[in-house]
Amino acid sequence: MTEQHSKARQVAEKAFDKTQASSAAGDRARDEVDAVTKARQEKTSRLREARLAMEAQNAADVSVRKT
């Protein structure tokens, strides 16, 4: 059975649906940005660890050569 609603309610429901769709799109965009940010932070952390390990190895090599 199809319910008949007043014109004002129909307009309000359309506006609500539009707001909900916009909100959902915003949530998806925020989730995507958060995922990209997290991936960037993880990569930066891995690269920093690799750089520090390489610098420590280079420092150890230099000290071995000096002795």
Helices and strands in order:
Elements: H1 7-66
Region (Disordered): 1-46
Biased composition (Basic and acidic residues): 1-17, 27-46
Describe this structure in a few short sentences:
The chain starts with 6 loop residues before the first helix and ends with a helix.
Commentary on this structure:
It contains one helix and no strands. The termini are far apart. By secondary structure, the chain is mainly α. The protein is 90% helix and 0% strand. It has a domain of 30 residues.
| Helix/strand class | mainly alpha
Measured as a percent range, the helix fraction is over 70%
> Major sheet, described briefly?
none
Low-confidence stretches: none
The termini sit apart by 92 Å
Total helical elements: 1
Beta-strand proportion: under 5%
What is the general shape?
rod-shaped
Q: Which radius of gyration do the C-alpha atoms yield?
A: 28 Å
* Element-by-element helix/strand order: H
Q: What's the number of extended β-strand segments?
A: 0
Mean pLDDT: 90
